[in-house]
Amino acid sequence: MSASEKAKAKTEQTAGKVEKEAGRAVGNESAAAEGSAKESKGDLREAKEKAKDALKD
After folding, report:
1. Neighbouring residues of 53: CB distance < 8 A, sequence distance ≥ 6
2. What does the pLDDT look like over 45-54, one tens digit per residue?
């Protein structure tokens, strides 16, 4: 996994989690859903990079 892609994945995951929890804390379901989507996008990016690494081996 390239370092820049790994960093992007972790950034998306963290930002999404923060946004999701902030949305839940204030009762904003839209923000919570958007945060959850960002977190999932980061998870998918990480999985994609891991798959690419596995194919290289």
Report:
1. 1
2. 999 989 988 8
